[in-house]
Amino acid sequence: MRAVARQLAEESVVLLANDAGLLPLTDGPGSRIAVIGPMADDPAAMLGCYTFPRHVGVEHPELPLGVEVPTLLESVREALPGAEISHAAGCVPPEPEKSGAVAAGVAGADSPSLGGVLSKPETASGGGAGLPTAAELLGAEEDLLSEAVGLAGAADVCVAVLGDRSGLFGRGTSGEGCDAADLELPGAQGALLDALLSTGTPVVLVLLTGRPYALGRYAGPGRSGGTPPAAAVVQAFFPGEEGGPAVAGVLSGRVNPSGRLPVSVPYGSGGQPWTYLAPQLGLHNEASSLDPTPLYPFGHGLSYTSFAWTGGAVEAADGSAASTADGDGTVLLDTDGEATVRLTVRNTGDRPGTETVQLYLHDPVARTTRPVNRLIGYARVPLGPGEAAEVRFGFHTDLAAYTTRDGRRIVEPGDLELRLAASSADIRHTARVRLNGAERTVGHCRRMVCAAMVHRLGVPGQGTAAAAPEPAREENGTVAVAPPVRSL
Hints:
Blueprint lengths: L1 H11 L1 E4 L14 E5 L15 H4 L16 H8 L4 E5 L45 H20 L3 E7 L25 H10 L4 E6 L23 E4 L7 H10 L54 E10 L14 E4 L3 E10 L5 E10 L11 E10 L4 E9 L5 E2 L5 E3 L2 E10 L2 E11 L3 E2 L10 E7 L14 E3 L2 E3 L8
Parallel strand pairs: 2-3, 2-4, 4-5, 5-6, 8-16
Antiparallel strand pairs: 1-6, 7-9, 9-12, 10-11, 10-15, 12-18, 13-14, 14-17, 15-16, 18-20, 19-20
Helix pairs in contact: 1-6, 3-6
């Protein structure tokens, strides 16, 4: 079971940015890496709110965790045995905001912050018998920050490990019943990250979170922060009991990242962590001076290798050439028809990797407002260096059905676009389809699956080659790799 947990964790880690090519990290003598952050050496940082230790175990702090969970610090030391690795927490772990009390580690309305401002001056005189004063708490946090900045400044690379404390109903910063007023990094972690970036040492930001946080201040184009940007950003969410080795594998290069975002990452703290189902008026427009465009869109994820996409096309489901409208290349289908969407993907880099081809549906005109992009299928395509594979999606017009104002779910005649993409914002090829015929009402037995098949083509001049291992059923060189995607 731990092997399965490791595989799932490795496949779920998302490399959001690697602009400076800093990752993978360099191992060996002379390589100095500072691993900083309150989540770096905390095994519970890997676990979500419904895991037993975070669900029930928090009620019994006297008991051990109950499961072996390597921390990221331990895993990095194991993955990079030749490097000199130092560690500091930098700040206390984040806690949910509490009203009317000073709690250690709380940067809320009633507690000290790294800025040194107290919202309730009377708390500075003392916290009651056995409790530290606000001044003592502030001094302790400043000591933690000073130690972290010193280690980061003396290192070649700083790995900042930040995130959430999972919990239920106010016992965490993320989880059921743990809401957030905005999407700033919780607690003092934002101030810590600012301080680490200001050292000038390249920073790899690793996020162990239950929700996406606003990163526009720290990374990406048009940053709002005044410090150098993070050199790389890794989003791991809550990766589970084998999350430490999985994330360390990505940092060291043992694992080529292949995860993709299941939600967008907003630019500003007042943004929305969208999926991808925004209507046209939800996009950037002249009616608002605020740009809702996410920093990293739904479906985004990078790799240590590169891929080339060629030959996007649509054909009839029986393999024959589909009929096209006069002159514009639009494929004609019946409202109860089906077609195959295909393209070829080649690994053009020097190491094995997995590309994820995503198929989105765009309905330009409908009776009710439709999303700009709706994911209807995807395929993970594992390829060795130089290898290629043909990806085929089986599209049925049932997947274009939507619910009208009178409660019926229909497929109507008209134009559609099938968009092959690397993310919801990175469209690589668009196939235009025109549905002809009568409007059709569909029920619960409609097609809900856009089946994806990957046919391995091998390396030019070498015939068909085995691709990187991928858990799937293979028949005659064709692998079914995509699970069902339900129509919403």
